[in-house]
Amino acid sequence: MRRARHAGAPVHGTTPDRGGTARRDDRIGGTGPVGERGAAHRRGARGPGVTAGKSADWPSGERSSAASGERSSAASGEPEILVLPDAAAAAAAAAARIATALASAVAARGVAHWATTGGSTPGAIYRNLAARPLRDTVPWEGVHIWWGDDRWVPPDDPLSNVLACRDLLLRDVPLPADQVHPFPIGEAMARGLPPSWVAERYAVELRAAKVPLDAAGFPILDIILVGIGSDGHLFSVFPGSGTWDDPAWAQAVAAPTHIAPRVERITLHPRVMDAARLPLAVAHGPSKAAIIGRIFGPRGDERELPALLARRPGALWILDEAAAVAIPPEARAAPAR
Questions:
Q1: In a domain? residue 28
Q2: Is-contact 240 276, C-beta < 8 A?
């Protein structure tokens, strides 16, 4: 495997509701132009990955051929796997890759659509993106941020997937407030509306943003950042989930009984991952080793192991050594030359 060296003003806003009354809603932080969207990314085609030796992917001029992390050569039909020494290095590498992908999307299409995540995965990534030099490499005026899922809690609740993004990223970067797209859970709670209303509203918002569609009719997001649940869930699509059989882009999900937090969720459809230009899975720590070993073992059923959706050509997995320890040797391709 190749060694890869790691890298190292929006505020809460008030916006008018549909009736024209000013209110504080779930948004975080202006207006900005939305440019043309590109063509669909088809599953099975090679997508973008980290490019060896390109210092743009590794801030401060550090090059990916240096020796502090392992990297697969992304054999045909499989994602690229980048293994770094620890969680901090993995977060820095993920932030660098996100910054590069956002800048590339804006340069190519005038806009970048990024769906982010919650849990333990994104905090350190946000800190890296909010700090120089990465902060200054992203054309934030062209970026839209979405969420792959969220919990049915107020946006200032510690369980909210929005909170860390607001506190660790959005307060420090010049992202227009109307280009931040949380699930409108706070509004729904204030109005006594159910999670299903939030899901329907989110699909409307994706259409209003003119996010391009793939051949199957799902929105094409430039980057989808995901963590990997210890049960193999992805977004809030759990093993055995019924979300696969409902074509709605966003769906309400009952509270899981097998994993915390046991609260209702709203999630994007799992097939949105198929449409993404760059699925980016990030995991660290020994608690993720067993499930990641299973994901990269003999291929199973996506409905029973939804994280398999991120095991596809064009995807990138960034792991620390502890999380990668159980990946079968055959899944780690020979070093690229």
A1: no
A2: no
